Amino acid sequence: MRWTFVTGSPATAKTEGLAVGVHDDLDFAGLPGAKALKAEAERLRFKAGAGESFFAFNLAGKPAKHLLVVGLGSRKAFAPGFLRAAAALAARRFRERFLQHAALAFPLGEDTAPARWAAAQALVEGATLGNARFTRFKTEESSKFEGLVSLQIFVPVKDGSLDEGGKLGQIMAEATLFARTLVTEPANTLTPERMAEEAKRVAKEGGLSIKILGLKECAKLGMGAYLAVAQGSKNEPRFIHLSYRPKGAKFHLGLVGKGLTFDSGGISIKPSDGMGAMKSDMSGSAAVLGAMKAIGALKPKVAVDAVMAMAENMPGGGA
């Protein structure tokens, strides 16, 4: 999804959909069709709380566009997190109507460079997260819809802080979506070996150092407890160590993520109701690998070591 910060009137934006944000005081002043919007909100008993939204009219503005109203909650409690959630909600609602081009017109909060930077990050991050879907195994044509292609974000004044914040939001969202995709993958495709291949790609993209230990290397190091977990599965374990060493780093961070690509249970096999969710027992390692993806892109002045002990816990003759 391409995003841009623009100025001007949202009502005349050349786009298919427009989302406007409003606080719980229902002050629609300055928005296109303010009186009609307020009347429609009252008719629908819309309180503008966080997570609330409604399509005000099927088409509005010039050129005509789908008009979505999104609640931002209280002005007093307003923070970038509300913008992130609202942008994600708007992206999801636009997807419902199969729109490819849309615009956001949300208040950004305080008129300071740091506030604009934080708002820009939240809006881009939220919209990118809300726009994404895992469709790898979908076969229906409607399920393959990619969502928004372009997004205009209306702001009172443009400055460099907006683009900087937006770029950070994009990086954070992409790292989050990468981790989500790994967790969503079924266990028969996301094996310990596959996770090691994903880690190699992250290392190459971000200029990170990587070391991967296989079955023999782990045995030589005496990692018996770890290997005992994996020995019932036909999928061999992979012990992954990623390192990031920037010059001048004064702080060293360690990240450890649980890496069971599937956990059937040991002596007591897990009940069937919860067995399907056991593919997510590697979500800790997915979060760590996603963090390393972001670190490789951001290049912070912090040394980082990330460790992921990938294995599949399954019953078998060797368990």
List the helices and strands and how they pair.
Blueprint: E1 2-6, E2 17-22, H1 34-43, E3 53-60, E4 65-71, H2 80-96, E5 101-105, H3 113-131, E6 150-154, H4 160-184, H5 192-206, E7 209-213, H6 215-220, H7 224-230, E8 238-244, E9 252-263, H8 272-275, H9 283-298, E10 303-313
Parallel strand pairs: 1-6, 2-4, 2-5, 5-6, 9-10
Antiparallel strand pairs: 3-4, 7-8, 8-10
Descriptive key words:
4-stranded mixed sheet, 37% helix, 6-stranded mixed sheet, alpha/beta, 319 residues, 22% strand
Biggest β-sheet, characterized?
6 strands, mixed
* Relative strand content: 15-25%
Average the pLDDT over all residues and give the rounded result: 93
Spatial strand sequence of the major β-sheet: 1-6-5-2-4-3
Helices and strands: which structural class? alpha/beta
Shape: elongated
User: Alpha-carbon distance between the termini?
Assistant: 47 Å
Share of helical residues: 25-40%
Q: Which regions contain 5 or more consecutive residues with pLDDT less than 50? A: none
What letter string, H or E per element, gives the SSE order? EEHEEHEHEHHEHHEEHHE
Estimated radius of gyration: 23 Å
- Helix tally equals 9
What's the count of strands?
10
Describe the structure.
- Helices cover 37% and strands 22% of the residues.
- It is of the alpha/beta class.
- It contains 9 helices and 10 strands.
- α2 (80-96) runs parallel beside α3 (113-131), α3 (113-131) packs parallel to α4 (160-184) and α5 (192-206) packs parallel to α9 (283-298).
- The mean pLDDT is 93.
- β3 (53-60) and β4 (65-71) form a beta hairpin.
Task: Give a brief rundown of this model.
With 319 residues, the protein is α/β, with parallel strands linked by helices. The strands form 2 sheets. Strands 1-6-5-2-4-3 form a 6-stranded mixed beta sheet, sandwiched between helices.
